[in-house]
Amino acid sequence: MTPSSDAAVPVTSDLPGEAPAGVPATPGDPKLVRGMKGYKRSRLGRNLIAAIAVGVGLGAVILLSLLIVAEGFVLLLAAVTAIGTWELAGALRRGAGIEVSLPVLLVGGQAVVWLSWPFGLHGVAIALTGTVLGCLIWRMRAGAAHFVRDIGASLFVLVYVPLLVAFAVQLTVAPEGVGRVLTFLLCVIASDVGGYAAGVVAGRHPMAPTISPKKSWEGFAGSQIAGMIAGSLCVALFFGVPWYWGTLVGALLVATATLGDLVESLVKRDLGIKDMGTLLPGHGGLMDRLDSLLPTAFVAWAVLGLVVPVA
Known about the structure:
Layout (H helix, E strand, L loop, with lengths): L8 E3 L11 E3 L4 H39 L1 H27 L5 H39 L6 H27 L3 H26 L3 E3 L3 E5 H23 L3 H29 L15 H4 L2 H15 L4
Antiparallel strand pairs: 1-2, 3-4
Helix pairs in contact: 1-2, 2-3, 2-4, 3-4, 4-5, 4-9, 5-6, 5-7, 5-9, 6-7, 7-9
């Protein structure tokens, strides 16, 4: 059909309210419009219910593992590291044909997480360096073609997932670790909720239209307000620190969470993919839920280490 053609075409799909198969329908047919709207609402309802169910389930698992025993939360973080590494490697392969040193990254990622528990950043440095050397040796087998590209991608995966997860481990094993982790998580959750509410109600000015068209400055303001409130309450309740320090904590965590969202949006746009994976119904892959949490773990570790010093 040429761009100027207005001829009706047979409609054969089974969208609710649509014309029967083989019956011509014009683009402006009210039945078509109503059918499409109903179909979209139905799909949205199913996706929203699935997303809420998955979110509640993940929250329950995190909270239980954190409150029962710290080692359980570290075990959960180790699983997150393995799945996240696998998903990101798969996204790079699907979107750009990049082959990272996946076996080395899976083993090295676990070393980063588990050595960070008893040995702190010294253990992280040892595991990271060993993993880098392992990636170099593993990739040498495939020859010189795309060597720099593939090694660069392997290092990106190593830093983006295992290294940033290691800072969540450091939050956990520090004195008052439960309070530190809850402050980190609650500020990010408050950021998401506040940003969504403000964006829906008042979102008018796009924040980064070429990266994430749905993000608005009004939504970011809502995220900041909610995050600062959460931060103030958390530092006062968990650590007995003056509430105004919590506004700084919340503001920095919200800014980093937003940056993490935008960075992952850029990665997906560059790779030409919608989601990192399909593990979580209504959410995409696990990495699609970690985009704001991963970089924020480092900032939470750094800022809380200054506001609530580790003895």
